[in-house]
TrEMBL record, chain A:
Subcellular location(s) per record: Cell projection, Kinocilium; Cytoplasm, Cytoskeleton, Flagellum axoneme
The protein's name in its UniProt record: Radial spoke head protein 9 homolog
Record Pfam families: Radial_spoke
BP GO terms, sorted: axoneme assembly; cilium movement involved in cell motility; motile cilium assembly
GO cellular component, one term: radial spoke
TrEMBL record, chain B:
Cellular localisation: Cytoplasm, Cytoskeleton, Cilium axoneme
InterPro entries documented for this protein: Radial_spoke
Protein name: Radial spokehead
Bias type Acidic residues, positions: 207-241, 402-423, 514-524, 536-552
Ranges where the record places region Disordered: 1-31, 205-268, 401-431, 491-552
GO CC annotation terms, alphabetical: axoneme; radial spoke head
Keyword Methyltransferase (UniProt): no
Amino acid sequence: MESEGLHLNISYVGSCGTVLSAEQSAALQTSLVILQNNYKFNRVFFWGKISGIKGDYFIAQGCGNDEMVERKTLYSLDCVTWGLLPLATQAIRDQCSVVKGRFIGDPSHEYEHIEIQKLGEGEDATEEENTIMIKEEDRLAAVIAKIDEEVAVVPRGAYVRTPHGLVLKNRSFEGLSVTESGKLHNYFHFREPVRLNEKTLLEKADLDKSIDFLDPIHEDIPRGGSWSLDFVRGGGLVTIRSLLWPGMNFYHVPQSRKFGYIYIGTGEQNKDLPFML
Amino acid sequence: MMEEPQNNEGTPKTGNSKPQTPTGTAVATPPNMAVNLTPTEEALVNAKAYLLKASNKSNLNLYDHLSRILTKVLDERPENVVDLFEDISKNVKKSKFTSTSDTILDKVDKTAEVELGETQKILFERDQEEAEHDGGEDEVETPLPNLPELMYHFEQAGVGVSREEMMRIYLALKQLVDNYPLQSCRFWGKLFGTEKNYIVAEVEYREGEEEEEEEEEEHETEEPDTEKDDEEGEGEEQEEDILPKPDFKPPPVIPREENRTGTNKKTFFVCNEPGQPWVKLPAITPLQISVARQIKKFFTGRLDQQIISYPPFNGTEANYLRAQISRVSAGTQISPLGFYQFDEEEEEEEEDGNRDSFIESPDFEGIPVKDLVDPSMANWVHHVQHILPQGRCSWFNPVQQQEEDFEDEEDEEEREEPDEPEPEVGPPLLTPLSEDVEIENIPPWSARLTSSLVPQYAIAVIQSNLWPGAYAFGTDKKFENVYIGWGHKYSPDNYSPPPPPPVQEEFPSGPEITEAEDPTPEEEAALRAAQQEAMEAAEEMEDEEEEDGEDD
């Protein structure tokens, strides 16, 4: 969610159990402004909180001209001093996918992972144990990238892609109507489209090229079970919670430009989802 | 002047080479008018005529549209108008289509928002009687907690729901206290569902009141049951050929704990939104708890939803919700050491060590916050009984019951003496948290201060890692527990459903059920030959007999 007016935005997701203490929200409002200035971001987003056993990570994201690609992620343990997270490359993400369990809350903590490699073939095969040390900072970067990729949500029409390929905020976006906001196909994954490229020409015929350049979330697998859409104040506020990443809350006030998402959770994917529906 | 009409026409290629095309194609200018005009004026007239041409689709023309936009721009004078131009144009077009007056009857359907507002309005209405007594008499002691204060403490820890919602919950609790004879009432927490959420209140009835209420309920429900039994009895009489009954005896059903004891010590009320009527959850049975431990399902928000799972869950979502609430309570309801103590009078009566009641200690001095966040967690104790694997808090001997059942059966002698099962024992009440088991190297509890900047006035917050969403705060003499989450236990490994029971063993194969081998053709031939011989011998015998008879 946007850091501008954070105290208002955070109250939209209050029904999901997401609250910031007065001290935290005051500290964030101060430090995020400085952050925006120092890193020369166009806009700064308060991304959320990943709670660890000993401490919590507060995450902020800043973006440049292109809202989708030019994003940098920063973390802080005390809401005041911010550190830039390493870029989650595919190698880091593969490496960190083996770590399970909760975050500790110490960026320099190292997880030990023993990888068993098989050498040779047939009878000569010998097993060799490789110990890999994985830094929590890397894991944090990998998890945030994964959450962004899988469950970051924006309403349809909130962003446009210019002919140059730049993704910009749509100035004339006026919010979804109440009936439209109750339908999952009006919300998009905020990532480079994956499924859109697999669609046939016939399916793509009716799409608006500048608006429908993202994947709608209703196609997620398991269908009908990945998201929980809820009208909070009757029809005055829509919240969408991801069941795959519990803690990811998206809100949108119908017929207004207010929308955003925040993740407050343990940073663990819900692998049991198929059994729980 | 020549350039403008060309640009407006929108066909620059042809426009540049043939400036006169608009005249020919777009509008045919009346010849008598064109006579007195200079070529420049003529072009202007042509251009204007072209701009005034109405669209086939929308019946608008560009000339009017542009003049409207320019009027709007000049009236409103927005900043950076050139960037907004498309938006303004779009808005002007849009406003053109919406009719200001409607000929259809002006009846607006109530939106869901209005309906919700109306249900919640009741919460904010003051009781007439109360208003009359206002300030007159001393305030009657009420079981209603000071929720805003408690939630203020939780908010410092970054736990809870938004303040407006909390106020509504508070008023809804007040409604609950007014409508039911309650001894104590507490906001237990909030559980998320895929469609709606649950707000849970934990209450205790005043002595004897709950029984009365339940009896009434039972009378209502009993009647259809007896009818059903009668029908079944008749059916059996009509059937002449009774089906064989299996000799499988289901394991004895472990009876549920009485109200006010063990898992049914507290009663729970739930509602989806504050202001909606509170629904009382049914009492929990041990079977439901033990099945709930083996399954992991999302709540939907509808209490009558069927739970489709393996192993099958006996009941609806209301029962599952109740089971999860019991499990969360047993695992996460904590209080500072010394706040509660065992009642000494009762202690003498019950000497089996399984004490289940406690009272607030009168001389509790409060524990310094610094000690409350001590990582050993020795200063916090559980004040809800541990639930045994059986699904009860106090162990029940299933064999005992079996014996009673068998007493009137005749085959008592044949019955094998079942082994006396080992009683299940859990940690006693008011056990410190330091005794809790780790979850695969993760400590079960995390404790921290709410503020690092002003530690003098900070409060201690305890967070359960086993039940994510369960929190407790402690400061001076106050403490409170709350649960805001999905109602699932944490496990670093993923859930795997229990395997189906092993396949039943085959019947032991013996000669009586073994299939005999088919005879070979040789054997058949031999048998046939033997039969033939026997026949012939018999015939001969008959012949002889006949001959003998003839002889007689």
